[in-house]
Amino acid sequence: VDELVLSRALKHLYHKRAENGFILYAYTHLRIDKPQPIDPAQAAAGKVNTMNGKDGTAAALFSLLDGYPSAVENCSRRCALAFNATRSGHGGMWFNNYWTPIGAFYAGEAAYQHFMKGQQWWRELYRDHSGAVWQTGNSNGKGDEMAVGHVIHYVAPQKRLRIFGAPRSAFAPNPPAYLKEALAAHHNRDYALAETLIQKVLTGRGVPDKDLPMVRHFLDSVQMVRKSIDYDLTYTENLLQKGANDLASLELPQLKMVVAPGNARLKAIAATLESKDGKAVSGKGQRGKNRNKNESRSESKQVGKYNGKTWAQELASLVTLVKDGKDTREGTAKVPTFPANEWNKWRLMAVETLSDAPAGWQKPDYDDSGWDEVALPTAWPMGHVGMLRTTFEVKNANAYKELQVRANVYKQRNMKIYLNGQLVAIVNNMRNTALFPLPPSAMELLHNGKNSLAVITEHGQRMVDFGFRLEGRIKDK
């Protein structure tokens, strides 16, 4: 946490603004010495203002501290009287709809029931035809984002959450005994050993048919973690080579969480960043001095410079910039699309659930002649899973340095992308158009001649308009 931000946050705490149910967006010298009066008409109509849900956040957080009962009481009371006041807020309605009910919960059972009964009509509008409440949405002010975290409030009084209908997971309680060694290796961050043990289980013919999807999902997860770690380590090493130590230092905490402590590459990265020379390049020493002096806003703008660049400037030089299908960076050729255009022919098959997908459907030699032939963008029944397959020709695979995906993926979830039969990406809960790079391992799968591309995804929109294409970025000349 930034020291200046923390000091200002503590000042808010010491001035007892939250204790009085009044929480500000920004730092000001306004002081509230007592709780604000509640208009009886607003209370009866359920339209008391909770400051975009921040009263609910405060009620929950202060409940975790000793000695602040008035903060919980004042903030939660306002939330309980706001059952018709959650349909607006900065950033759409997400914060208001998520935190205000939680705040009402801390006002007591009767107050919480009062809130939930008053808002029931509003909540029921967000169910789909099956009775489910979708957990995807957007924050464009249209209201779709209300569903995010929506159902958590129904189970708040139980202080527990049980989810039914999800595929069985190896990470759930009481896993099969034959997976315990692999799970122990995964827990110890030895993902290579975990993959070997899972492969051994699958080839040993000791897995019941009903467990095969779970074990294969476990294997997919481990393989993706390994690829992701290799990508992140390489990315961080490249930052250090460029002298971008500040950016590299931001990667180090998350690397330490997933990479085994004895990993030689992680040790080398940490040693570089923690060395005297590494700290000098990152500018941490000067930043710490300035923050200890409680630097002004103008001073803080100068913090974090290295190699004559600010963080923002360095980020801009590192981030891939793509517009209208063309890479805008100097000296980089256009981005060709695979296959040649969006209107090429694909094969589509729709099933009700992921478990209904036929075995080996993503393999290059799978016979999809019985599937529907479609042109993208396309659609299939709501709530169903779509499997799409196509092929494309590559004349010179060595001409490309990176593969990326551009897609129209409104309210898509559980999307898996396969190149030549191998899983290269898992993406969940996408909401609009998307542009993202595939890991470097995907380039190893691309070859001259005929290549196959397969996508499986589930959507929850009545009128889905699904578009998808693979792009190859040409190497700099």
In short:
This protein has 477 residues and is an alpha+beta fold. 37% of the residues lie in helices and 16% in strands. It contains 16 helices and twelve strands.
Describe the structure.
The protein has 16 helices and twelve strands. A hairpin with a 2-residue loop joins strand 1 and strand 2. Helix content is 37%, strand content 16%. The protein has 477 residues and is α+β, with helices and mostly antiparallel strands. The chain has helices at 3-14, 40-45, 54-62, 69-80, 94-105, 109-124, 180-187, 191-203, 212-241, 245-258, 264-274, 276-282, 284-292, 297-300, 311-318, 440-445, and strands at residues 322-323, 326-327, 337-338, 345-351, 372-375, 385-394, 400-408, 412-419, 422-427, 433-437, 449-459, 467-474. The strands form three sheets. Strands 5-4-6-11-8-9 form a six-stranded antiparallel beta sheet.
Radius of gyration: 26 Å
Q: Output the helix-strand order.
A: HHHHHHHHHHHHHHHEEEEEEEEEEHEE
Q: How are the strands ordered across the major sheet?
A: 5-4-6-11-8-9
Number of strands: 12
Share in β-strands: 15-25%
Oligomer: single chain
Which stretches are poorly predicted, pLDDT < 50 over at least 5 residues?
136-143, 284-334
N-end to C-end Cα span: 42 Å
Largest sheet: 6 strands, antiparallel
Number of helices: 16
